[in-house]
Design brief:
The chain is mainly alpha-helical. It folds into four domains: about 50 residues, no CATH class; about 80 residues; about 150 residues, hpI Integrase, Chain A (Orthogonal Bundle), CATH 1.10.443.10; about 35 residues, no CATH class. It contains 16 helices and seven strands. The chain has a three-stranded antiparallel sheet with strand order 1-2-3, covered by helices on one side. α3 packs antiparallel against α4 and α8 packs across α12. The longest helix has 20 residues.
């Protein structure tokens, strides 16, 4: 018999897809559960009440509920929390905050770009990719937790992003900007000087403490890449830090009263003074571009620049590689030399002496 009395309770023991055993206070309850279990099994539904409850809960998850769950369990632990919040909200608005996650389809995924382009015809490929990246994270999260069938195969569109011109500060722009900032707020001039010569992100500079800076180096312990790095200091930056460290506790921040918003206020005044109000790329982050650009242009190896800037992947640093023309000028010498080799000169031999003039090799004495 599948139902047996065990003391003051009644135990059901049945085998369906596997062996189930449950106890109830009365025989009626036991018989009811046995019947319901067999019916659920016949329909292909979970027999276990707990699994059935979880399955029912998973079936009712909405996109807004999923977004908040991913935000809480994943994105809140990342540096780019605010960006994730913005991107995920856009996705949820398009798919419907109250729409059930389990109804996701490839057509709905494809329509995200269509609806964004209808809203804004000039939406950039980069923006579409960022929104889709957010959606991809949510779908993968939902699949792992059973909100979406694990066998749901989906494809996230990838739009080709144009390679934009890298904006950096010229020597003349730096000279004029620093001179102007000295007249309105000397501390901003110090900040800009530090940013240009260390490549720090704004958030990294705001977190910098006295103990993070020595007489020769500064150390970034918290970075976007998650890895600490040390940056050597040029003389004018050493002097700035020396003054700011004086009479401060080791754990005190060097720029405690500064925020991105406050810096941007003064930066924009300097930008207006230089007549660059219509240059959308002339923002404080251009100081970091300037740091990387100058290193590359002065022949610093790409891997060194990567480490100094704290890029987690070399592809980020490679955006600046085309700015170094010197190595290409040297490379073309091989072609120049090949064209001027004497007929009887061995392939790996040389009978000409060359000197460099303006990046081009010329036969000495010619």
């Amino acid at each position: 018999m599948p139902i047996k009395q065990r003391g003051n309770s009644y135990q059901v023991a049945i085998t369906l897809d596997k062996r189930y055993r449950k106890s109830f206070k009365t025989r009626v309850e036991a018989e009811r559960w046995e019947l319901e279990a067999k019916l659920r099994h016949a329909k292909g539904e979970p027999v276990d009440d707990r699994k059935r409850g979880k399955a029912k809960e998973a079936d009712s998850i909405t996109w807004e509920q999923l977004r908040k769950e991913v935000m809480r369990n994943r994105w809140s632990k990342q540096k780019s929390t605010s960006t994730a919040e913005i991107n995920s909200k856009t996705i949820v608005e398009i798919l419907g905050a109250d729409a059930l996650v389990k109804h996701i389809s490839q057509r709905a995924i494809d329509d995200v770009a269509v609806m964004m382009q209808e809203e804004n015809e000039e939406v950039s490929p980069a923006t579409l990719n960022r929104k889709y990246s957010s959606l991809s994270v949510m779908i993968k999260y939902a699949k792992k937790r059973g909100y979406i069938p694990k066998d749901f195969d989906f494809e996230i569109p990838k739009y080709k992003e144009a390679e934009h011109r890298i904006r950096w500060i010229t020597d003349q722009e730096e000279k004029e900007m620093i001179a102007y900032l000295m007249t309105i707020q000397s501390e901003v001039a110090d900040i800009v000087t530090i940013l240009i010569n260390t490549g720090l992100r704004l958030s990294e500079l705001w977190r910098l403490t006295v103990r993070d800076v020595t007489d020769t180096h500064l150390t970034v312990w918290e970075s976007k890449s998650g890895k600490a790095r040390s940056v050597p200091l040029v003389s004018k930056v050493r002097e700035i830090f020396k003054d700011r460290k004086e009479n401060r506790a080791p754990d005190s921040r060097l720029f405690p009263d500064w925020t991105n918003y406050r810096l941007t206020h003064f930066w924009n005044r300097g930008r207006d003074y230089l007549g660059l109000s219509n240059d959308p790329q002339y923002v404080p982050h251009v100081c970091r571009h300037t740091f990387c650009t100058r290193l590359i242009q002065r022949g610093v190896p790409i891997t060194h620049v990567q480490r100094l800037a704290g890029h987690s992947v070399i592809t980020t640093t490679l955006r600046y590689a085309h700015l170094s023309q010197g190595d290409l000028d040297l490379a073309i010498l091989a072609l120049e030399e090949g064209q001027n080799r004497a007929p009887n000169t061995p392939e790996n031999g040389h009978d000409l002496t060359y000197i460099k003039e303006g990046g081009i090799a010329a036969k000495q004495g010619a």
